[in-house]
Amino acid sequence: MASFLYFLTNQTLLKSHAIIINRGTLLKFSFFLMLYLSPICSSSNIYSGFEDANGTKYDLFPNVLKFEAVARLIELGKVSDADKYLERTFQSPASVRAGNLIRLWMEDAGLKTWVDQMGNVHGRTEGINPSEKALIIGSHLDTVIDAGIFDGSLGIVCALSALKVLNTNNRLERLRRPVEVIAFSDEEGVRFQSTFLGSAAIAGVLPASVLHLDDKSGVTVQAALRENSIETTEENLLQLKYDPECVWGYIEVHIEQGPVLETVGLPLGLVKGIAGQTRLKVTVRGSQGHAGTVPMTMRQDPMVAAAELIVLLESLCKQPDDYLSYDGQCNPSEVQSLAGSLVCTVGEISSWPSASNVIPGQVTFTVDLRAIDDMGREAVLYELSNRMHQICDRRSVFCTIEHKHDAKAVGCDSELSSQLQSAAYAAIKRITGESAFDVPVLMSGAGHDAMAMSHLTKVGMLFVRCRGGFSHSPAEHVMDDDVWAASMAILAFLEKLL
C-alpha cells in the first residue's frame, strides 16, 4: 500500500506521462485513495481522519463504522424464515440464527456475551469502574413480515461498530462506566400480538402471564422459548428486571421511519418524545349461514358490521373534533393536539369459516391507535368503544374489544438528549467538515424499545434518515454515509465516557 502511494506521488513518473499535478493535490488524492481502499485493509493499520484548524486529530474509521457496518446490515438482512422476503419473529429459527450472529459481533467488539430467559442477546464491558451505573444501548433483532433490513438492526450494528473502534484502539476498558448492548428479542409483537417482550422484561413491566400467550399455531411464549432450550418460568422471568440503581441511562439509534430528515437534508435527528400507543383486538360475532339462502333482511352478518366499524375508526381519527365532546373526557387543547398526531390502523382482519359461499360467523380485526397526547388518546378510545357497541347493537351482532397493548407517551431525558444532540453534531461535522446546521428535533409516531426502558431509566434517542420515509417494507433504505454518521454519533457519545 505504502509503495503504491509512493508511486502515485512520484512527480517524475507522473510528468513522464504528461500529467502535471502539484504536491498538495497529490496528497489529497492519496488521502481519498486510502479512504477508497480502506475496506480491504486492517483498521489497526490504516489511519483515516483529519485535523481541524486547531490541530485536533479526529479518526473517521470508515472501514468499521461504514463499510463493515453496512456489510453486517446486509448479512443480517439475509437471515430470514422466508425465502422471498425478510421475516424474523420471536424465537423463530431465523431469530435464533440472527441472535447467534449478533453475539459473534459482540465478542468481536470485545464484549462479554450471554442470552437471557426472554431470548435477549447481551454484550457488556465493565470499563474501569464496574460498580458504576451502566449505560445501556439497544434495539431489536426481530422484524415485521416482508420487512426492510434497517429497522431495529441499525441500532444494534452501529453500537457494536462504535465499541469495536474503541476496542481496536485499546480504549474500551478505559470507559468510566460499564456499557451494555442489548439486542432485544421482540419489539414488533408480530408472533404473539404483544409488543416489547424483550425490553419490557428487562424493565420489569412484562407481566408473567405473557408466558401463556399463544400464537396462531397454539404455541405459547413459554413453549417457543423451550424449543430453543430456554427454560423460562414466571419466577425467573421476574428476575430479569434490572435494578434501576445499577442503570445510568438508555440510548437507542433507529431509522426515522418518516420523511422529515430527508426533507431537511440531514442524516441525524434528535428524538424528544414517543407517541403513546394502544393495540386492540376486535371480535364481531354474528349468525353463520348459507350465502344463497339467507335473505338480506334477516342476516346478522359480522363482516359488514366489521366494515362499518373500520370506517368509523377512520372517520374518528381523521376528524376527532367531529366526534369528541368537551365533557370531561377531552378539552379543546387536547383535540387540537390530536388533530396533528392521531393515527389509526387496521392491519389484520380474518373471518370464520372464511369461505366464499358462507356468511361468516365471526370476524376479527386489529386496531393500532397512536397519539402524542395520552389524555386525548384515552378520549378517542372511550368514544370509539361507545360507538362500536352502538353499531353492533343496531346490526344485531355481538362485539368484544380486547386491549392487547397500552403504552403511555414517553418524553426523552433532557440531559441524555443534549449529549446525543452534541454527539450527532460532532459526527456530521467530522464526516462532512460542515458546521452550519442544527440537528433537528423530532417526535416519534412509532413505538420503540425506549418506551419500555423508560420504566427503568432515563432514555434518549437519535433518528437516522431513511429514503422516502419508507419502513416496514423492502423499500426501507439508509444510505451508507448515514450509517457511518449514526455509528460515528455513538462513538462520539461514548468518547465522553472516556
UniProtKB/TrEMBL annotation:
InterPro entries assigned: Amidase_Cbmase (IPR010158), Bact_exopeptidase_dim_dom (IPR036264), Peptidase_M20 (IPR002933), Peptidase_M20_dimer (IPR011650)
Family matches, as Gene3D superfamilies: 3.30.70.360, Zn peptidases (3.40.630.10)
EC number: 3.5.3.9
Cofactor list: Mn(2+)
Record's subcellular location: Endoplasmic reticulum
Key words of the record: Endoplasmic reticulum, Hydrolase, Manganese, Metal-binding, Purine metabolism, Signal
Keyword Cell membrane belongs to the record: no
UniProt-listed Pfam families: M20_dimer (PF07687), Peptidase_M20 (PF01546)
GO terms for biological process, alphabetical: purine nucleobase metabolic process
GO CC field: endoplasmic reticulum
CDD domains: M20_bAS
Residues covered by the Peptidase M20 dimerisation domain: 276-388
Main localization category: endoplasmic reticulum
Top-level taxon of origin: Eukaryota
EC class (word): hydrolase
MF terms (GO), sorted A to Z: allantoate deiminase activity; metal ion binding
Catalytic activity: allantoate + H2O + 2 H(+) = (S)-2-ureidoglycine + NH4(+) + CO2
Family membership: Belongs to the peptidase M20A family.
Subunit structure: Homodimer.
UniProt-listed NCBIfam families: hydantase (TIGR01879)
Annotated protein name in UniProt: allantoate deiminase
Native organism: Cinchona calisaya
Lineage summary: Eukaryota, Viridiplantae, Streptophyta, Embryophyta, Tracheophyta
